Amino acid sequence: MRPADESTIELKIITNHRTDLVRDRTRAINRLRSTLTGTFPALERTLVLTSTGPLVLLDGYQTPAAIRRVGIARLTRWLRARVVRSPEELETMAFDAAEQQHTAAPGEAVIAQLVRTLAADVRVLNEKVAEVDRLIEDRFPGPRPCGDHYEQGIGPLLGAEFLVGSDLTFFPTPDRLAAALTNVRYDLNSRTFYNRKRAKGKRHTQAVIALARRRVNVLWALIRDRRLYEVVPPRVTASL
C-alpha cells in the first residue's frame, strides 16, 4: 500500500472518521462523569465509564437509593441477564458506593435521567467505534506490514495510522510515536531484549519502557527513511 493507493485513501478516510468518533466519545464520557458526580460521586469514583458493564448498570440504576432498594441478589441477576462481565464484582462496587451516601442530592430525579441518557450515548459511540475498528481490520488483514515486510507488535489501528501518516505528520518525533506504540510483546528479538533487561535487575515497567523506546526508534527511522523492515539492520557502506 502506498499513499496514493485507493486502499490507502479509503483507510485514511476511515481512520479520520474514527478519530472524530473517539473525540465525541471522550466528550460524552466527560459529560457523564460530571453529571454523575452531581448526584452520586462515590459511584463515579468507582466505575470505569469506558467499559460496557458500568454503562449497562447506569441504564437501570443511577442513585444510591435505587441500588439499595433493588438488593444485591436482584441486581446481580439483572446484570447477568444483560450479559455483563463479572456481575458480582460490579454489584459489590455499586453497593459499596451506595452505602457511602444516604442523602439525596437536589434535583436527583432529573440528574438520574440525564445520567441514563448520557450512558446510552456512550454505549452508542462505543458501538460506532467498534464498527469502524472492524472496517479498519478488514482493510488491514494478517500480519502487520511495515513497507512490504512485517513488524511485530503493531495492531491494525496503529498500523493504519502508520500507513495514512507515513509522511510522519502524525509522528513528528520518536516520542510521539512511542506514545502510540502499545504492544511490543510478541517478537522474539523484543522478548530477548526484555529478558536481558530483567536479568540486569530492571523491574518489569522499566524493561517495557526500554523496549518500547528501542522499538519506536526503529519504526520511526523506517518511516523517516522509507526503508523496509529487516531483522538485521542494513550494513552501512563507506563512501569511496
Automatic annotation (TrEMBL):
InterPro entries: Transp_IS110-like_N, Transpos_IS110
Gene Ontology process terms (BP): DNA transposition
Ranges where the Transposase IS110-like N-terminal domain occurs: 2-41
An example Gene Ontology molecular-function term: DNA binding
Pfam families according to UniProt: DEDD_Tnp_IS110
Alphabetized PANTHER family for the sequence: PUTATIVE TRANSPOSASE FOR IS117-RELATED, TRANSPOSASE FOR INSERTION SEQUENCE ELEMENT IS1111A
The name this protein goes by in its record: Transposase
Species of the source: Streptomyces sp. R33
